[in-house]
Amino acid sequence: GDSVTQMEGPVTLSEEAFLTINCTYTATGYPSLFWYVQYPGEGLQLLLKATKADDKGSNKGFEATYRKETTSFHLEKGSVQVSDSAVYFCALLNYGGATNKLIFGTGTLLAVQP
Amino acid sequence: KAGVTQTPRYLIKTRGQQVTLSCSPISGHRSVSWYQQTPGQGLQFLFEYFSETQRNKGNFPGRFSGRQFSNSRSEMNVSTLELGDSALYLCASTPGISEGTDTQYFGPGTRLTVL
User: Fold this and answer.
1) CA of A31: which chain B residue's CA is closest?
2) Per residue in A59-69, pLDDT tens?
3) CB distance from A26 to chain B under 8 Å?
């Protein structure tokens, strides 16, 4: 079945450091890919998405490119801030089964220190 | 537009009881999905409703059930609660127009604790 693999956390960075969180997927067909972020005590917020190969999603300085050849959707940010500290989830949506079922990775905790 | 709302935000129940959680989607959204989040299992899909019909169900026992009303509001019910049902239950809504690419918008969740 479809699955998402994320790098284990926690990831601890200093403010203004470069961030990469790796995400790879296994899926049949052509899934859509998402990054969601969860702040403490809150639900999930969409960070960015890409719906087809070579699409780049971007938002708030974060970017990820849908790479079908490597089945990857790595999250990057050039300069992190303390306020970026949160848990980040990579997810895929494969509509082949006519359903909006999201499949999530395990999440990566990011801690940014001043 | 108002976001996805979930009530109640917190619940404490004892084993064997049942519980009903409510989700109001964004106005105009027709699809509502439910997810369970636990530290051990992560985020797992429970079920999805579209236009009052269950479209898909995750791998959960029959104690977990749900429904959707004509105004797209949804409820999920867990009967005969077990300690392992303690979790954050998240509801997500999506327009249901561009299937497969629509963004799912999540509510703040209901934190269920089973004692």
Assistant:
1) B100
2) 999 999 999 99
3) no
